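Q: what does this look like with iron/sulfur cluster bound?
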Amino acid sequence: MAVETSTFEKTALAGLYGPEDFGGLAHKNANAAVRGRITAEDRARALPMPSLEWTPEVERATAHLYERVKAVIPPVEWPFMAPYVKAINELKRERNAVILAHNYQTPEIFNCVSDIVGDSLKLAIEATKVKADVIVQCGVHFMAETSKILNPSKTVLIPDSRAGCSLASSITGEDVRLLRERFPGVPVVAYVNTSADVKAEVDICCTSSNAVQVVESLGSDTVIMVPDQYLAKYVASKTKVKIIAWKGACEVHERFTGDELRSYREADPSVQIIAHPECPPDVIAEADFTGSTAHMIDWVRKNHPQRVVMVTECSMADNVQAELPQIEFVKPCNLCPHMKRITLPKILDSLIYMREEVTVDPMIAEKARRSVERMINLKN
Ligand code: SF4
């Protein structure tokens, strides 16, 4: 059943702020990271480059992995991927490393080299339970930072540190301090899609799965939510708490439109449409179900629709289709350019050279950890 349009579209935020509301503060990109060249130090600790030839041995060693992705990767492409897959899986053992892959990673990464898959929070929490010395984060920079915050003694690597996020880069810790000055005493909730600097300044973090619960847990009639204006609007439609929002948006989800979804329904009235709460209100109003990436996947597993439109980053539909090939996925293919910076060759590089290492200032990490752990410790 679609979210009630009239209720949702009329939902008003108590306020909507952006950097321009704070006197032209020079806004810096919280996620800016310069991708360094391979240094002499990197070379000193490098392992030998493995052979990347497609041989009968590689074919045999990776056949069981190809089975997992054959619904979404054509056979003609596999010989180019399989040598990397085999080499990465061997190097992981040598480095005592685990690979965490977000739901938006491409199928060969998600299904063939990763040890833990899921949304950003699940990845970071699960990483605290493994014995590996090294975490390779196949996702974007804020996710690698969250892993480092929760796993300070482990080496956290990201295959390309330029993998940013339009939400994380829309706000800085300084912006949060200015919001607090403007709204003294109002608690601040940060979506996990933020830098460590922002997490360190807020009261608690939230994910798209638990945002309503987190907001209501604070016992305040007004709450500031940063940085996603659409998630904030979605939460405002589900609670009596007044929400003051930041003007950030996900550049992938904000491209979807209600018109686009209506055209899918007109073409096939039986199609099921499920959307992520980072989408604009007119999109959510058209959806049969709205939920986080984890909730969307659970919904498809449970409901087994004949045809479904997953209104989110399009690699996720490929990954669910690899698991459930009997379901037809309509793919409005909006790719996240940041997630797509992570590739098999870059993961291999990461393990060979142990780069690019993600570090977080220990003082910031300690404060940020409190905000993340406060969320994790909330009772369900
Ligand atoms: S999909 Fe959107 S929220 Fe996720 S990393 Fe890309 S820009 Fe950020």
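The domain at 40-166+340-353 is CATH 3.40.50.10800 (Rossmann fold). Residues 289 and 299 are 8 Å apart (CA to CA).
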